Amino acid sequence: MVNPKVFRMPTVEPSLVGKAQLSDFYATQRFNRPAPRAQPLSRIVISWFFAAG
After folding, report:
1. Which range has highest mean pLDDT (12-21, 24-33, 44-53)?
2. What pLDDT shows up at residue 37?
3. Which of 5, 20, 42, 53 keeps 20 to 30 A from 11, CA to CA?
4. Does 17 reside within a domain?
5. DSSP the chain
6. Would you state the pLDDT for residue 26?
């Protein structure tokens, strides 16, 4: 069985140890926001199509 450890650099001590702490953190603090979505700042279109003329 794997015992996960999560580190927050630059500390050398783990901030979360074990599956229970990890799942509790993600259930209560990470994915509890109503709509975490990224908004695109700009769009770039690159095309290799050249019209034959």
Report:
1. 12-21
2. 73
3. 20
4. yes
5. ----EEE-TT-SSEEEESHHHHHHHIIIIIS-SS------S------------
6. 86
Q: Which of the given ranges, 14-18, 38-42, 48-52, has the highest pLDDT on average?
A: 14-18
Q: What pTM does this model have?
A: 0.51
12: in domain: yes
Task: Answer yes or no: is 43 within a domain.
Answer: no
Q: For residue 42, is it within any domain?
A: no
Amino acid at 12: V
Print the domain residue range for 3: 1-32
Contact 16, 4 (CB under 8 A): yes
